[in-house]
């Protein structure tokens, strides 16, 4: 079986009115069991080509198949392990948690303990498992990235400069592990700029191909077969077995998505707990509630439940759009989402876990507002009313949390902060706050806004009226949930700004 197929792939990048071509008419295939060394000078486009194979980048033209599937399909990466040239995992997460997370993505992970997997990559200190990423040295991080690539028991390894920052002993262990993987029939595609890797690659590689820079393309083409080492002994039986296994499992491999969701959700919640500045900054907005007592002539009970709902709306939109969007943009710029997208984690599961963990923060914020409203402002209402409003606020904010996530993917990380902050000034008008100019025209446009229908739905719940338009408000929010959800998955798959 051909585990990688590249047909007439061209890649150009646009900057303003000009464009730069990196790859042109690349044709290339890799069969199961091969060890391919992809050579090329710096800037030739090796990382760009590997990014396309991993589904991180869409070619400008041409087609790529990974395990017979679109590289952006999570199922295409069920049995693929990747070491990227530039990436970063969350600094506040422990090594054990990262290993368990990536283990959960695989339908057939390595039957080894976390300690044994770390020993495979020469991470033998017992305290490493419970260490956070921040204090790890560069060599230790690089070895961990290899462990994360191997933990899913891959049939294909894609290695982009995997030996960078490795010390002499770790370099030796790395090549021992790669040799073992090759002997077991694992297909390997590797690129490196380090001269001390050449000897091992000349010894192990079954094929050597060279990618020439676009400005120096020879007449034969940009990607040329430098040598095919047919006389090298390959364990054909192992390779055949792997070939048959891949051909039957690549298209559809049942996985318990609920288990993956639970592990991803647990990971997201742990990240939030270990980011006190994010939580304190987010929940500090609740502290504005008692300030309503400072208005002239304030009397207990003067502030209504409707006013409290408006305040909750401001807080929820801040959390769901501005704070979540910035968080996603930061994870993109650091490279964590780049690594996640090389795994078989389904986009829907990732998005669901991210949104669910954020809704917990929203729930805490609303609960705190209600407590302060009752205690400080004297807003007395039945428990049933508070509960109904609470559910309306939480359920209704969900599509806008997905929108915030989508904006975090869509916006360039450098501009996300200012654009997301600016959006908070636009949302009130989208909810129906009167404008000083053309109010009738704006009112007609606002009636088409899901923000407006969210506000009207929650106010209808608070006022306990039987407004027949409640069903209309609900339908608009359901439509927004579906539209934002589908577009968020699409943006997640096509995200190209994270590629260096």
TrEMBL record:
Lineage: Bacteria, Bacillati, Cyanobacteriota, Cyanophyceae, Nostocales
ATP-binding is among the record's keywords: yes
Residue ranges of coiled coil: none
Organism: Nostoc favosum CHAB5714
Membrane topology: Multi-pass membrane protein
The protein's name in its UniProt record: ABC transporter G family ATP-binding protein/permease
A Pfam family of this chain: ABC2_membrane_3
Compartmental location: Membrane
Keywords, ordered alphabetically: ATP-binding, Membrane, Nucleotide-binding, Transmembrane, Transmembrane helix, Transport
Molecular functions (GO terms): ATP binding
Residue ranges of the TM segments: 307-325, 348-377, 383-407, 419-437, 470-492
Domain ABC transporter: 4-245
């Amino acid at each position: 079986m051909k585990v990688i197929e590249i047909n007439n792939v061209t890649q150009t990048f646009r900057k303003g009115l000009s464009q730069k071509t990196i790859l042109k008419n690349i044709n290339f295939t890799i069969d199961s069991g091969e060890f391919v060394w992809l050579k090329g000078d710096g800037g030739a486009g090796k990382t760009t080509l590997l990014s396309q194979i991993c589904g991180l980048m869409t070619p400008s033209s041409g087609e790529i198949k990974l395990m017979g599937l679109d590289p952006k399909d999570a199922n295409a990466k069920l049995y693929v392990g990747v070491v990227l040239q530039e990436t970063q995992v969350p600094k506040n997460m422990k090594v054990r948690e990262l290993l368990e997370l990536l283990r959960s993505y695989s339908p057939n992970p390595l039957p080894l303990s976390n300690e044994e997997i770390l020993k495979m990559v020469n991470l033998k200190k017992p305290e490493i498992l419970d260490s956070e990423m921040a204090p790890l040295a560069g060599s230790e991080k690089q070895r961990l990235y290899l462990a994360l690539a191997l933990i899913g028991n891959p049939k294909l390894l894609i290695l982009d400069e995997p030996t960078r920052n490795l010390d002499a002993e770790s370099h030796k262990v790395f090549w021992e592990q790669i040799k073992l993987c090759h002997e077991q029939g694992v297909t390997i595609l590797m690129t490196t700029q380090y001269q001390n890797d050449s000897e091992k690659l000349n010894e192990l590689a079954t094929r050597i191909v060279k990618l020439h820079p676009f400005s120096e393309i020879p007449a034969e083409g940009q990607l040329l077969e430098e040598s095919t080492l047919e006389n090298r002994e390959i364990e054909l039986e192992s390779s055949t077995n792997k070939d048959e296994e891949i051909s039957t499992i690549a298209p559809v491999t049942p996985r318990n998505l609920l288990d993956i969701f639970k592990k991803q959700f647990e990971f997201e919640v742990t990240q939030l707990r270990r980011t006190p500045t994010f939580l304190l900054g987010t929940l500090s907005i609740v502290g504005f509630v008692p300030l309503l007592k400072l208005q002239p002539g304030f009397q207990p009970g003067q502030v209504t439940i409707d006013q409290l709902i408006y305040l909750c709306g401001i807080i929820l939109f801040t959390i769901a759009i501005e704070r979540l969007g910035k968080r996603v943009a930061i994870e993109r710029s650091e490279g964590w989402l780049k690594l996640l997208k090389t795994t078989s984690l389904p986009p829907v599961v990732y998005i669901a876990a991210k949104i669910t963990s954020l809704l917990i923060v929203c729930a805490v914020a609303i609960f705190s507002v209600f407590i302060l409203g009752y205690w400080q402002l004297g807003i007395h209402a039945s428990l049933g009313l508070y509960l109904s409003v609470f559910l309306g606020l939480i359920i209704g904010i969900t599509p806008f949390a997905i929108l915030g996530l989508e904006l975090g993917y869509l916006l360039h990380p450098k501009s996300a902060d200012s654009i997301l902050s600016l959006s908070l000034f636009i949302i009130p008008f989208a909810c129906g706050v009167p404008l000083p100019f053309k109010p009738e025209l704006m009112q007609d446009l606002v009636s088409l806004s899901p923000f407006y229908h969210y506000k009207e739905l929650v106010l209808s719940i608070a006022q306990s009226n039987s407004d027949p338009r409640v069903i209309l408000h609900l339908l608009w929010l359901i439509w927004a949930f579906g539209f934002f959800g589908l577009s968020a998955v699409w943006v997640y798959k096509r995200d190209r700004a994270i590629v260096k």
